[in-house]
Amino acid sequence: MTTPRESAIKAARQAGLLVSERLGRIRDIDYKGAYNIVTDVDRDSEELIVSILRSDFPDFGLVGEEGGEKQAGSPRRWLVDPIDGTTNYTHGYPFFSISIALEEAGRMVLGVVYNPLADELFWAEEGKGAWLNDRRLAVSAQRSLATSLLATGFPADTRAAPDDNMIRFFTLTDLSHGVRRDGSAALDLCFVAAGRLDGFWETKLSPWDVAAGIAIVSEAGGRISDLSGQPFDIRKGHILATNGLIHDEVVAVLESLKGRRLAEIGSGEDSN
Ligand code: 2AM
Ligand code: CA
Fold first, then answer.
1. Binning pLDDT at 50, 70 and 90, where does residue 158 land?
2. CATH of the domain at 49
3. I want to staple 153 with a disulfide (CB 3.0 to 4.6 A). Which of 68, 99, 111, 202 is the partner?
């Protein structure tokens, strides 16, 4: 009998093949709202994943970024992002992934994130550890923010939204080894799990962007919260994931920036 893990890995690998084969050959780019890009490849990838998961587990619920909700109310549901990093994908920037999670009674019990170009398959299952291909993952042992490498992302509506992330980016860049901005939240979370990054934060993410990555970071020994250090709320999507050791230090910096915008301090020439 197929297990959920086998099914999710099969779906992620097959979708990864489809997505990588069609890189550079997108037929249509549409906008969902003013900023959110969707391509024909996102839709075809989701259709492929859904067909595999539904045929293996017809009773499970499913929420996909491009397809909405099926079997709402089921105690177990899949959360599917057929391409995480669609903006990168449309530009041919090689950093995107397929993300599939299984949620059970509000807990992420399984996460699979696949980067088809690097052939890196990250997965974790509750109690079974986090893995990259056949290697067990653990978060970094970095104890200090000053020597940490971080990543963030900016919401798609960054031009319009009042809570801009620039002040956090600006400040934490100065306080650390640097802040990357790579465009796939799912992969950024996996990089925290793998110890390639010591921390990652972003706001306003959707459940399918983070669900699998949360399972993987947790099983790799990392810590997840919102930007204030409070429990992460998937409906809000404000996430801070670290190796645990630098968590409080990052929270203290983020808290000190609350309600402030870069425009306050980044006004150009200093008059004296
Ligand atoms: P996506 O490619 O699946 O849309 C990049 O900063 C991260 O933000 C990616 O994980 C990206 O996922 C996500 N993202 C981009 N636009 C978004 C939007 N309008 N709402 C929520 N998440 C978004
Ligand atoms: Ca997506």
1. low
2. 3.30.540.10
3. 202
